[in-house]
Amino acid sequence: MFNVEIYCLSHKYFSLLDKLPEYIKPLGLGNNIYPAHWLNDKQGENISHLHEHYGEGTGIYWIWKNKLKNMNANDWIGTCHYRRFWLNKLYNNKQKLNVSSLYSNLLKLDNKIFSRCDSIQIQPTTFKNETIFQQFNKIHGPNILNACINFLEINERDSFSEFLYGNNLSHTIFITKVHLFEKYCESLFPWLKKCYEYCIKNDLCKGYNSRLPAFLMERYASYWLKKNTKNKEYLSYARIGNLMRSNNLNKFINPMKIPFTFRMYPTLHRY
Question: Which of 173, 197, 181, 152 is nearest to 50 (CA)?
Fold first, then answer.
C-alpha cells in the first residue's frame, strides 16, 4: 500500500484551497500571511527568501527538505497550483456537455494510473511553429538559456539541449515516486542556484523576468522527468479563474461542487 501527498502551492490565501480533498495540502509561499492550519515554506529548512525569483521552486525545495524523510521510497508525492488542479483523466477536448461538477472530476486516489507508472505530468503544450528554445528566447530574451545550459554537468548539456529543440512542454507541477522526486531535486537545485547567480549578476531579473529561475525550472522539470522516468503518463488539468477563487464567494458555497462547472474543462493549450 502506498501513500499519496500532493501540495497545493499558493502565493496567497485562498479559502477555496481549504475545500480540496484531504490529500491535497495547501502550502503557502513567500512573505504573505497564512492561517495556522496551512503549511508554509518559511517553516523548517527553506529558501523562502528566494520566492520572488524561484516562484513555486521554493515550495518544491521545502517539500524536498522537510517532508520526504517521513515517506517511503515508493510513496507518491507531487504538487498542484492555486489555479491549476489535476483532473482524473486525460482529455483531448473540452467537456462542453458534461453536467457534473469540477470537484467530482478532480484526481482520485483510486485512479489506476498510480499502479502503472512512476511519474505523472501535466498534459503538454505543443508549440506548432517554434521549438521550446525559440519560445523561451522570444519571451525572455536571447542568450540566457544558452548560458544556463553551460551550468549543467557536461554529460547533461547535450540531452537538455536536444529536449529544448523539441516542441512539447509540460508545466512545473507533477506527481512522482518519492525516490524520483528526491533525485530530481538533487539535480535541479544546484543548477538553479548557478542560474540565479548568473541572472542576478547580469541584472536580468527585472519585470516579467524577475522569475527567470522559475521559468528555467519549468523547462528543466519537463526535460528531467522525460529523461529519467521509464514509465510516465499524463493527466489533464483545470485552470481556475479569479471568480472561482474569490474568498467572498467561497464564504457561501464551494463553486467547484456546482453542477455543470466541469463543462469548462480541461484546460488545453495549442500554439
Answer: 197
- Please name the residue that has the C-alpha cell 544556463: 148
pLDDT in tens, 218-248: 999 999 999 999 899 999 999 999 999 999 9
- Does some domain include residue 271? no
Average pLDDT, the chain: 95
Is residue 270 one of the residues assigned to a domain?
no
Instruction: Calculate ∠ Cα 22-245-254, nearest 5°.
Output: 55
Cα separation values, 8 from 41, 174, 262, Å: 12, 11, 20
**CATH code assigned at 200:** 3.90.550
β-pairing, 119-122 with 232-235? parallel
Element at 39 (helix H, strand E): strand 39-40
CA 155 – CA 178 distance, rounded (Å):
24
Query: Which residue reads 469540477 in cell numbers?
Result: 102
In a domain, 199, yes or no: yes
Burial 159-184 (b: 16+ CB within 10 A, else e): ebeebbebbebbbbbbbbbbbbbbeb
Domain region containing 75? 4-264
The pLDDT value recorded for residue 193 is: 98
pTM surpassing 0.90? yes
Q: What is the pLDDT of residue 1?
A: 59
- The whole-angstrom separation of Cα 3 and Cα 78 is 11
Q: How many structural domains comprise the chain?
A: 1
- Judge whether 248 lies within some domain: yes
Cell (9 digits) for 207: 519585470
Taking only the tens place, the pLDDT of each residue in 109-122 is: 999 999 999 999 99
